[in-house]
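Catalogue entry: protein

Sequence with per-residue C-alpha cells
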Amino acid sequence: MLGMLVGSIGAGQIMSRTGHYKYLPTIGTVAMVGALLYLTRLSPDTGNMEFFITIFVLGFGMGPIMSVGTTAIQNAVPLEIMGVATAGYSMFRQIGGAVGVALFGALFTSSLASQLPADHMSIQSLSSQTIANLPEEFQGIVLFGITEALHPIFFVAAIMAGAAFFVSWFLEEKPLV
C-alpha cells in the first residue's frame, strides 16, 4: 500500500506539472513485471527487507496505473457522461480484481495441495499456529510448499502485467482539461 500511495502521488504530481500521462502506466507496468518476476524466486529463506522492497516496487508500479487510468478516462469523455465513465471504470476494475483473486486463489490452493505431505496435514488445517506446532522438518516442507505454490501465481501475474505494458503503448493521450 505504501508503494501504491507513493506511485500514485508521484504520478499525480508529474501529471499536474507536465500535463502528460501517457508513459506513466508504461513505466508502472515495467516496475510491476520486474517485481513479479523477482517474486517468482521467493523462498522460505527470503529476508523480510528483500521481500518488503520487492512488494514496495510492485505497489509503486501499480500506483500510476490506478491514478492515470481514472484521469485518462475522465479526460477522454464528454462532461455529461464523466460520472458514468468513472463508475464504469471502477466497476470493471473491481470485477477484474474479484475474478483475479478467485482465480489466483484456486491456482494457489491446487498447487499447494500438491506440495503438502498428504499424510500429515491438509489445506483446511493450515494456519500459522499449525505450522508453528509442526516438527521442524515438516515446517520446512510446508514453508517450501507455500512459496513454491506462489511461484506460478507471480509468473502469471507478470505475464498479465506484460500484456498491460503493451496495451499502455496504445493509450491515446489527450491534453488535460
User: Anything to note?
Assistant: The mean pLDDT is 89. Helices lie at 2-18, 24-39, 48-76, 82-115, 128-133, 136-168.
